[in-house]
């Protein structure tokens, strides 16, 4: 069973305007998602907190296995829905959406929010769309779960949405199967399906990873346009800093299931205060960089989520792990501390050390 | 159309091979038709009657012609008529094959279809439940039962079920009774054969269903279905089942096709007068015409079943549809 948090509105209680403490539209507090396995407890997300307002876009970045997707599925309640068998995900913390706590809510109530108040776009639209049903049928289904309308009306709505996301001849294409669409068209159809109910929260999980580079920009433009139009809150999950640079107002950098740095996009890009963020920026190709210059990878591999390194999870890969005194990086887990306005990072290096390393060693190489 | 041509070609090829087998084995087919004890004159008579000294293609042609216009076997003054549709004539039992087939085939078909209904119902249901309750006690026990079902030979389960339910508990009065005589007794007689045959197949179907279902439930489009806000019964019953049914239908087509050829073990164990029993008897008596007729029916059934599966495939999976 899901481990329920004690606070929050009782199931079925009418929604209050916003979560009590911050009043944010989306308020995730100390979210933990653990999976029991034969090898031990996998701590995919281990104490993540963030807030998001309507009309804003949050970019969550991190490498594979950092807990990005697990976080998004957690918000959608998809770890508890459709969980069968003996082993179930253990989820704790609080997720407030529009004044309603989701983890303590009745799963069926959360199901009714899914697709209506919060929707999701997945990475690979070919595998995320059912191969045996037409695009139209799948959109109609998504609409009719939450609206008591007949098929004809829903179909009209589906065509309208396909038109809105830029699919040519939507009245004909509505009867096509996913395999008859190109990759970009499929992702557009997927976006049409997720937006068919005007959700206030849209989670895009690696929305452009499976697409051609030329199509990527179009899809990102589309997401941005739709957000301006609908004024929804958007979470973009990606390992591609280019995508967040394009879309995000705020950036949250995840490492080993925790947030290591978060802040406004320009701060995280131009004044990053965590060695892992430096590593990510260093491994990103840039047009203004000399072609002969090599990208700098982050050395080592992602941490085991079962035996997370003690202290700072990044310490085995961090080139500066020995700078702080008393081996503190290997024994004490760093807190997420303010380093500027709305900008915080979890690192044992002193502010001065980090400012110096960034301006003298890292920034010139980027 | 191409499929129809293929069908005819396959049937003819299967059949030619069958005609050739006696020659390959070096046994005089005339002797096989009439029996070893017969005297030389009788053998020679049969040879002429069946045109066994003609080239093989003529023999095949004569056989197929017989299906459509009937056939007259004549040697000297001895004339045997085989009315249309003539699927051959057994000189051992002195009867035409077609009535044997029409007599036997319904029993086999009822056995196969009834068992198929049972194994689909229970096998698929058990497989789905096991997949949904993966790793639980239910799952493990269901899979142990399924393993037993697959491993236990049908003559064993048949004997055990007969011993327990008929001779032991006396709940069921087994033994075949034609439907026309007494539907109730017929049903009682068919019950154990159905269940026994279904047990074997249900076990296989449960395992396949479970494996497929588990695979399908890990698909991205199932997660999408949940993300849309669909309730779990719709996610499983509609989205997951649609994909799970594909391999099950393929198997069903093949299995039904094969079973029409005669569930020899089941029919023998329960003394059901079906094709399987007929062919077993024919093999024991080296009654070639009967075997020939059954082989024809069987290959037809398998080909038709495959055809139906192909068509169903296209209905289920739009990606298979031809443009």
TrEMBL record, chain A:
Gene3D superfamilies, A to Z: P-loop containing nucleotide triphosphate hydrolases
Locations listed in the record: Cell membrane
Which Gene Ontology biological process is one annotated for this entry?
peptide transport
How does the entry describe its membrane topology?
A: Peripheral membrane protein
- Which Pfam families does the record cross-reference, listed alphabetically? ABC_tran, oligo_HPY
Q: Which terms in the GO cellular component ontology are assigned?
A: plasma membrane
CDD domains noted in UniProt:
ABC_NikE_OppD_transporters
**Which top-rank group of organisms is this from?**
Bacteria
For this UniProt record, give its keywords in alphabetical order, as a comma-separated list.
Answer: ATP-binding, Cell membrane, Membrane, Nucleotide-binding, Transport
Molecular functions per Gene Ontology: ATP binding; ATP hydrolysis activity
Q: Where is the ABC transporter domain?
A: 28-281
Q: Which NCBIfam families match?
A: oligo_HPY
| Annotated family | Belongs to the ABC transporter superfamily.
Name the record gives this protein: Dipeptide/oligopeptide/nickel ABC transporter ATP-binding protein
Task: State the species of origin.
Answer: Streptomyces fulvorobeus
TrEMBL record, chain B:
Please report the organism this UniProt entry assigns to the protein.
Streptomyces fulvorobeus
Q: Which SUPFAM superfamilies match?
A: MetI-like
For this protein, the record's Gene3D superfamilies field holds: MetI-like
Identification of the protein by name: Peptide/nickel transport system permease protein
- What stretches pass through the bilayer? 5-24, 109-132, 144-165, 185-204, 248-270, 290-316
Q: GO terms for molecular function, please?
A: dipeptide transmembrane transporter activity
* Lipid bilayer topology: Multi-pass membrane protein
Q: Which GO cellular component term is one of those annotated? A: plasma membrane
Q: Which UniProt keywords apply?
A: Cell membrane, Membrane, Transmembrane, Transmembrane helix, Transport
Stated family? Belongs to the binding-protein-dependent transport system permease family.
* Organism taxonomic ancestry: Bacteria, Bacillati, Actinomycetota, Actinomycetes, Kitasatosporales
Q: The ABC transmembrane type-1 domain covers which part of the protein?
A: 105-313
Whether Transcription counts among this entry's keywords is no
For the keyword Acyltransferase, the answer is no
The places in or outside the cell where this protein is found are: Cell membrane
Which InterPro entries has this protein been placed in? BPD_transp_1_N (IPR045621), MetI-like (IPR000515), MetI-like_sf (IPR035906)
């Amino acid at each position: 069973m899901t481990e329920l948090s004690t606070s929050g509105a009782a199931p079925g209680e009418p929604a209050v305007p916003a979560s009590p403490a911050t009043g944010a539209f989306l308020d995730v507090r100390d979210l933990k998602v653990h999976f029991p396995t034969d090898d031990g407890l996998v701590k995919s997300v281990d104490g993540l907190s963030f807030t998001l307002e309507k009309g804003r876009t949050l970019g969550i970045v991190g490498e594979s296995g950092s807990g990005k997707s697990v976080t998004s599925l957690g918000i959608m309640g998809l770890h508890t829905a459709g969980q069968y068998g003996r082993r179930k995900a253990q989820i704790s913390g609080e997720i407030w959406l529009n004044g309603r706590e989701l983890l303590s809510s009745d799963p069926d109530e959360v199901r009714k929010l899914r697709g209506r108040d919060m929707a999701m776009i997945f990475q690979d639209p070919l595998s995320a769309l059912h191969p045996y049903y037409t695009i139209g049928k799948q959109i109609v289904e998504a609409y009719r779960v939450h609206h008591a309308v007949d098929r004809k009306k829903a179909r009209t709505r589906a065509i309208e949405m396909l038109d809105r996301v830029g699919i040519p001849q939507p009245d004909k294409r509505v009867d096509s199967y996913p395999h008859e669409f190109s990759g970009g068209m499929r992702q557009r159809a997927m976006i049409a399906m997720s937006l068919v109910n005007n959700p206030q929260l849209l989670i895009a999980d690696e929305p452009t990873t499976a697409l051609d580079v030329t199509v990527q920009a179009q899809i990102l433009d589309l997401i941005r346009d739709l957000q301006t139009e609908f004024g929804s809150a958007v979470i973009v999950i990606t390992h591609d800093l280019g995508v967040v640079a394009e879309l995000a107002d705020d950036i949250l950098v995840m490492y080993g299931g925790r947030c290591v740095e978060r802040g406004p996009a320009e701060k995280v890009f131009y004044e990053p205060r965590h060695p892992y963020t430096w590593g990510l920026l260093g491994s990103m190709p840039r047009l203004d960089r000399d072609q002969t210059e090599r990208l700098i990878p982050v050395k080592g591999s992602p941490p085991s989520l079962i035996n997370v390194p003690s202290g700072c999870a990044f310490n085995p890969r961090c080139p500066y792990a020995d700078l702080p005194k008393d081996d503190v990086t290997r024994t004490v887990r760093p807190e997420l501390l303010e380093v500027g306005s709305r900008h915080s990072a979890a690192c044992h290096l002193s502010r001065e050390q980090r400012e110096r390393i960034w301006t003298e060693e890292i920034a010139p190489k980027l | 159309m191409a499929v129809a041509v293929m069908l005819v070609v396959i049937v003819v090829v299967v059949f030619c091979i069958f005609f050739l087998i006696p020659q390959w084995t070096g046994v005089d087919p005339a002797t096989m038709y009439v029996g070893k004890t017969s005297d030389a004159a009788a053998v020679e008579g049969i040879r002429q009657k069946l045109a066994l000294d003609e080239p093989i293609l003529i023999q095949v042609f004569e056989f197929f012609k017989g299906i459509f216009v009937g056939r007259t076997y004549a040697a000297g003054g001895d004339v045997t008529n085989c009315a249309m549709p003539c699927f051959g004539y057994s000189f051992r039992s002195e009867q035409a094959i077609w009535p044997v087939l029409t007599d036997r085939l319904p029993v086999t078909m009822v056995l196969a279809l009834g068992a198929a209904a049972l194994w689909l119902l229970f096998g698929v249901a058990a497989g789905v439940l096991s997949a949904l309750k993966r790793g639980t006690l239910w799952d493990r026990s269901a899979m142990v039962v399924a393993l037993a079902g697959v491993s236990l030979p049908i003559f064993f389960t048949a004997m055990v079920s007969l011993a327990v339910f008929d001779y032991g508990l006396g709940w069921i009065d087994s033994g075949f009774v034609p439907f026309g005589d007494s539907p109730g007794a017929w049903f009682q007689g068919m019950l154990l054969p159905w269940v026994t045959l279904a047990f074997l197949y249900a076990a296989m179907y449960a395992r396949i269903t479970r494996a497929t279902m588990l695979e399908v439930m890990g698909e991205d489009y199932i997660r999408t279905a949940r993300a849309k806000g669909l309730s779990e019964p719709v996610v499983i019953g509609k989205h997951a089942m649609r994909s799970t049914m594909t391999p099950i239908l393929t198997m069903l087509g093949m299995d039904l096709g094969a079973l029409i050829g005669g569930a020899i073990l089941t029919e023998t164990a329960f003394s059901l007068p079906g094709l399987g029993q007929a062919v077993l008897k024919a093999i024991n008596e080296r009654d070639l015409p009967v075997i020939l007729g059954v082989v024809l029916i069987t290959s037809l059934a398998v080909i038709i079943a495959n055809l139906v599966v192909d068509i169903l495939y296209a209905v289920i999976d739009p990606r298979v549809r031809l443009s």
